[in-house]
Each structure stands twice: as C-alpha cells, then as structure tokens.
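Lab meeting tomorrow. Look over both lines:
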Amino acid sequence: MSIHSVRRECANLAWDNSIPPALHVKSGDEITFDCIDASNGQLTAESTVATLETINMGAFNPVNGPVFVDGAQPGDTLQVDVLRIENPEWGWTGLFPGFGLLADEFPEPALKIWKLEPEGFAWFDEKKSIKVPLRPFAGEMGVAQKKNGALSTIPPYHTGGNIDTRHITVGSTLFLPVEVEGALFSIGDGHAAQGDGEVCGSAIETPMKVTVRLSVRKDKSYTKTPHFTTPASKSEGEYYCTTGVDSDIREATRSAVRNMIDFLVAEYGLGRVDAYILCSVAGDLRMHEVVDMPNYVIGMMMPRSVLGPSKKA
C-alpha cells in the first residue's frame, strides 16, 4: 500500500472523462485530498451577507481529482473507505435566492458563519443553548461517466457526485459503479454537519482534508448506483417531528419543513431564517408513509439534544 496526496489546486468544476488524471494509484492505496469549500474560497470566516452580492455561483462545488485507479474497468465497483477527516475551526451556511427547498418563501440572501469547537459541536445560539453536533463528511464523491462531455458538479448522479449523504463519514465505505477505465474518482464539498435533506441548500460548509482508500472490486457488478455502509452512531435521543401530508411528495416535504420552522419560531423564539438554517444543518427528513395513496407522509425530525429549553417551558 502507498500513501498519496492531491493538492487543493487539482480541482475541477465538472465530471468529465476527458480530464487528465491528477494522480495514478494502485488498488488499495490511500490518498489524502486537500479540498477547498463549496464556494471555491469565495467565502471566508470574515465574510458577511454583503459578500453574497458579488459571489460567482458558477464557481461552486469544485471536486479534487480525478484519480486513476489501476485495474479499474467498466463493470467493476470502486470501493471508497473513508479513513480520516480534518476540518478547520470555521464553516458557513448560506441562503441563496432561488435555491433551496423553500426558495420561494425565503427570497433574501443570508449567511451564518460558524465557529467549530474542538469538542465536536458548533453553537447555533449560545444564549438559547442551541448547538449542533459535528459529523464531518464530503458531500461530493464520485467517478466519471462513460458519457462524453462535461457534467455539472451540482446534481447527484448514478455514479455519485453531489450525493450530500451525511452518513458517509469516517468509518464508512462507499461503493461506486465504474464506467471508464481507471474509474477517475474525485471528491470535495466538505460539510462539518448536515441534516438529511440539506433543505436550505447548504450545510455547515467548510474546507477539509479527507483521506480515503480506493480499492477495485470485481465481485460487485450489481452496483449500479452509490451503495454504502455506515458505522453505528451514538443515539441522539428523543426527536420532535413535524409532518407534511400531500399527494405530491415534494409538497409534502415542503410542508414538513415549513411546519418545523413554525414550531421552532413558536417554541424557541427563532427567526424564520434561523429556523430554516437549523433545519438544514440538524434536521432529518424521513419518508414515513408511501403506500396509502393518494397521499404521502414526510417527516422533519429535529433531535431534542440540539435544542435548548423551550421558551414555553
């Protein structure tokens, strides 16, 4: 086994099988990627909401790589073991007009800069005793597609990409379908914490160094989309859950989030923007009921451990 590194400068804004590899490795090698944040360095710990007025959204979501893995052939599976993650002491969460699950209800930009505490949490509101546990992961992990041409790094694909799955953290293993020789693996979009759904459009975004081990698997040809294993997490205890019920699954999801925002405003005295951000970084969307048509039931679940005492307590 060899250990390699990919510098921050080796970043791209597309998935494209014609991009020359930044590195060649053998199956089983470890690689450390130095990943810039999702804003491509446009936001810093000193940024304010005014910074969003001049930001270039077209430069968002760079991925580091690609890495050519010797022996990887179309039809194989690339196994990605997440070994170590390091992140700095800050992160950001933003609302960008036109983006997010409730974009039509939150038309104004907003920006929250976080201090990431070494004890493994970030204060959302220290006076209200609201804090978010940190569970860092890379939102973007994927391989090149056989289709020629550049594909945006913003959406997820069957080959990975912007899958934004908070469970693929240290100790997890991701399996990706290989479509081109060498697989051409890339990674980026560091998150210090995120709820399932990332509903406002961003998590606690942060630069990070991620070490993974890449291995070629010849025995998992059934892998056609990202599969993963995830380590057992410590129980977050009791949840408070709001639901959305609708014949349109997206509208049911929007309703569940909207109802959680209403709850956080009424019970904890948060502003609506702050409540929306908290849903994105700490609340988990769940599909509770999908068979009793015509309606779906979607839940937004908030760990009680995140919240301080209710103002009505």
